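Entry
Fold in token form

___
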Amino acid sequence: MTKPPKPKPLLQDADKPVRSRPSKPRDPAQPNLPLDPMPDRIEPCLALLKARPPKGDDWVYEIKWDGYRLSVHIEPTRIRILTRGGHDWSDRFPAIKQAALWLPVGTAILDGEAVVLDEKGRSDFGLLQQSLGGRGGKKMSSDAIFMAFDLLYFDGHDLRKSELDVRRHLLEDLVPAGGLGDIRLSEEIEADGDQLLASACEHGLEGIIAKRRDAPYRSGRLGDWLKIKCIQSDSFVIIGYERSTAARAGIGRLLLAARKGKKFVYVGGVGTGFNERNAYELREKLDGLLTSTPAAAVDRKAAIFVKPKLIAEIEYRAWTDDAKLRHASYKGLRDKQDNAVVYAMNDADEGS
């Protein structure tokens, strides 16, 4: 665990630390400032996938982080860390929780991503999964850090109606750029979108995020935030596997499906990306879900079918002409508490 960072005074004189309560009695002649109730939970703003970065000065850019979306609630008597699905994972990220206690603020809600960085400083979803003990695991991650990219509530004031530029200004005072603690700032990058995307791809990053600088914070996938990926990475449900005597844990290939309406559609398989540890954990989970009824039509004679309960994060390069994943690689299982959404097929995928 890192040492506590030296608190940076926030919107006050350098010798006056921030307090959530006044340091002296309020002058009764002064009116009370209205305070907004602190939300128990806020549905996250989600990024809409686009092929190319948007143009114009209305947009700002950040690196796309590959981890678990979280909100950190700094409350008067406790710290809560909530997943995208609203589950309390405060005890699973002790370093992030401790770092939140050190922030110079009384009450706040930070929006961001829990990530584990590789040796080159890139976020790695597989490493994050391992640090938490895999899907359904109960381990505490001492390696995960929190990349903060928005501030939704600040010392009694709900900021969701404020423009992104205003929210970022307050966030950057609270979590200064360049810090190396367990809560860090996901910094905005001044650059041309196309050039930034090319640079991100060259350095092996997943992609970039574009945000409309004058937009309020709106829950859902409404287009205020956009994601542009170097390599496609989406969630698919596992509907079966094929055995192999040579492969680890006997898994030669996972069979994957996407949603189409209310049904599942087979989109091919993945046979790479496993290591010895996650392959045996995966085989144990699959063998507990065996079924004779496939969740989607699959023309694979050696297939062993499982109930569609496990969601895998899959990295891939493109779609084939018959709507199958091309150059797919397994990255890990999504936890049900992460509220991951299974990829939804559309006519463009089937005609690609």
